[in-house]
Amino acid sequence: MLSALLTEKLRLSRLSGRVSISVQEASRQVARLQEANLVVKGSDGLFSLTSYGRSVLKLLPSFDFLVSNRDYMLSHDLSFLPPGFVERIGELAPGEYGGTVGDILRHFQELMGESRRYVWLMADQVLLLDSVAEKALRNDGVSMRVVIPEKVEKEGVHAELVKGFRGDLELGLVESVNVGMALNESLAGVIFPDRAGRVDFNAGFRSRRPEFHAWCVDLFSYYWDRAKKVDLSIR
């Protein structure tokens, strides 16, 4: 009902039709919304959202995303996310859910193969050591940013990152990584940690929709801006 009233004022009969319920049921629901100060009835008999109702409506996609993926959320932890990102979690709603390791690998392979401008990767381990990645990374003009935990870098793995790569490569080190991300200029994917805090490569979300992509870009940038950069210019 709130969504139906977002773009125009409606009479009760039209509002009931928009949400496919009877006029009687619509009347009961609207009364509850009025009591909550989300909806107001004008002197012309038209219902509209209050300013408070418009603000609440902006948060509903996030609740909808969480509820729609309740089983996944019950077994994963989003409490590590920086302030603001949980409130924006509804931007991931257009995402396609992949529930197997194969789905995650296919996303990675597709992303690496189609990238023409950049690839951004973040995980608690290095993701660039398979033959598919090595082949994709030989494309001229593709720049890459990789965020990994400092403990992974101490194992000397960044030498493997630069091996065979012909583009610009930047490495950022953080104390810990609780999320996995792989995105290029048009496709983004994200995986979250399980309840033990380990990045779960068994399931995740991906999409080409702008709002999904923007959420992933912003989260990656949050970590990148705080990461210690490693100079890989001399190889």
Describe it for me?
The structure is a single chain. The chain has 235 residues and is of the alpha+beta class. It folds into two domains: 1-49, Arc Repressor Mutant, subunit A; 95-230, Endonuclease Chain A (Endonuclease, Chain A, 2-Layer Sandwich). It is 38% helix and 18% strand. The protein has helices at 12-18, 23-35, 51-68, 70-74, 101-114, 131-136, 150-153, 158-162, 210-226, and strands at 39-41, 47-49, 96-98, 118-122, 143-149, 169-174, 180-184, 188-191, 204-207, 228-230. Strands 3-9-8-7-4-5-6-10 form an eight-stranded mixed beta sheet, sandwiched between helices. It has a two-stranded antiparallel sheet with strand order 1-2. Helix 1 (12-18) packs across helix 2. The protein is elongated, with a radius of gyration of 23 Å. The N and C termini lie far apart (60 Å). The model has no long low-confidence stretch (mean pLDDT 87).
Taking the sheet with the most strands, its summary is: 8 strands, mixed
CATH class of the largest domain: Alpha Beta
By helix and strand content, what is the structural category? alpha+beta
For the record, the CATH architecture of the largest domain stands as: 2-Layer Sandwich
Query: What order do the helices and strands follow?
Result: HHEEHHEHEHEHHEEEEHE
Number of helices: 9
- Low-confidence runs (pLDDT<50, min 5 residues)? none
Average pLDDT, all residues:
87
User: Alpha-carbon distance between the termini?
Assistant: 60 Å
The CATH topology of the largest domain: Endonuclease, Chain A
Strand order of the main beta sheet, please?
3-9-8-7-4-5-6-10
Strand content: 15-25%
Strand count: 10
